[in-house]
Structure formats: C-alpha cells, structure tokens
Amino acid sequence: MKVQNGSGAVTLAEKDITEKILESYNDVFADIVNVLLFDGKQIIRPEELEDQAPRSAYKADGKLREMERDVAKRWTKSNIRIACVGLENQTEPDADMPLRVYSYDGAEYRAQLNGDAPRYPVVTLVLYFGHRKHWDKPLTLYEAANVPELFRPYVPDMKINLFEIAWLSREQVRKFQSDFRIVADYFVQKRESGDYEPSRERIDHVQETLQLLSVMTGDHRFEEAFEAGAEKGEASNMCEVLDKVEARGKEKANIANIRSLMDNLKWDSKQAMDALNIPASVRVKYEEKLNRQNE
Predict the structure, then answer these.
(1) How many CB atoms lie within 10 A of CB 37?
(2) Comparing C-alpha atoms, which of 14, 126, 23, 15 is closest to residue 71?
(3) Burial class (CB in 10 A: 0-12, 13-18, 19+), 247
(4) Given pLDDT bands bounded at 50, 70 and 90, which one contains residue 80?
(5) For the chain, which terminus, N or C, has the lower number of CB atoms within 10 Å?
(6) What is the DSSP string of 78-101?
(7) In 10 A of CB 75, how many CB atoms?
(8) Using one digit for the tens of pLDDT, what is the confidence trace for 122-171?
C-alpha cells in the first residue's frame, strides 16, 4: 500500500511491526468483506478466518525480493480452505495497481503448488480512501500493461476489485457492524461536505481505528489524541476523540503563547500565565511541559 503525504510515500509496514492494524482484526476483516462483496450478508464469520503471512518472495535481477500485502486471511470452514482474501489500502490512485494485485494473487496460487491440499481461489479488495477525486488510473491488466489488440486474445485480462470508500452510499455505510463503519463514515462525510460530524457510536479497537485514520488522512492528531488520553482511559467514541484533538491543539497554542511572552518580555511563567488567564487546574501541567522544553 502507498500513502502519500508531504514527505513522500509511506506505508503501514513502516509502523512498528508489533502494532496491529484495524483491518487485521477478524471482526473488522469479515465485516469489510461481507459488506463490500455480499451486501452485508453474514457470509464470512470472524471465527472462520485464519491469518495468512502477508509476505511472499520472488526472484528479480538474480536477487530474492519480498512483496508484502497489507492484510491477507484464509477463509476456512470445517477444516476446508474456501478462499484467500487480501485487502490493499490506497490513498492515491496507482497506475500499477492491477500489476501489484496480479503479483499478490499469483504468489498465493504459486504457494498452493507446494502441497496436495485442494486448491482455492484468491480474491483481493483494493480499498481507496481518497475523498477529493475518483480513482482515475487503470483498473485492468490490459490498461496497466498497454496490451496491444493483437495480443489480447492470448493474454487473459484481470480487473481489480476497487472500492471507493468515500463514495459508498449512506445505506452501505450503515451495513458495517464493526469499527470500519466509523472509518467509512468519516471519509463519506469529508467527501460530501468537507467536514465531519462525529458519532457517539462506541469504538471497540480505539488505537487501531485512530491509527488507520491517522495514516489514511495524514492527520497525526488522531494518533496523538489516543496517546494523550492513554493514561486517563481511552476515548470510547469519535466525539470524545475530537474533544481530545481540540484540547490538545488548545494546549499547544497556550504553551507556545506562554513561551513567547517569557522570551519576548522576559517574564516568568506565572506572569505569562496570569496575562493569558490560564486556569489554575492546568498550570502545573503547563509548567512541567515548559521545563521539559528547557532541558
């Protein structure tokens, strides 16, 4: 997965590998697949999913290289593997996405040749989180590889399963039963109005939901809000999360103003806080943060 931000492309893989991204939870993964593929019908159960190693190896230029999916799971019922399903997250359209998906799926089919177990299909869902414009890059192998008409009868085409999360209908969003409903609702609202009215719906996987929003939007205040409230108990809904985001922003602005008065007017911290009418309830905390700046 590629995510574009001000400093270039980053990936979820660059985050601490011990962290679990939201979609890797079975309840969330099954929910995404059931809504996007089966219109909300409970076809895949969380307990029927088993983790699939996201990495696969291939040889290029005489060297062994690795490919890494965002999330992949095998769907198993009565000890019989029915399918392997993978999720790929994108914040920007990628012209090579059909080639990437073809490679991921091919690696999984290749792995099945190593044993005598029954073969099973591989399905990849590409989740596009852009909300300012539709996906405008190739969707098929023919388009991505510029296959000439002369060769098309001999080259099987493949179309990626693309889902534009910000363009889901409100009815589709309501069908999600996991924390992904909060994520989808955020992007739909941003696309429709450019703003976000938070819900009081409970978040089960708080840290992972905020991390996904942080990575997909490039707005690290979501993750900072979780870190700020970790010692006092996690926020349980997006209203509380955004309250923490607002409070953290106000705190940073107040400390910056205190520091400015101290530096420019040669005041001590008490004089600066008195001038800014800083409440007594937060002065000790502000003092500690100012002292850490001096270290």
Answers:
(1) 16
(2) 23
(3) middle
(4) confident
(5) C
(6) TTEEEEEEEEEEESS--TTHHHHH
(7) 23
(8) 999 999 999 999 999 999 999 999 999 999 999 999 999 999 999 999 99
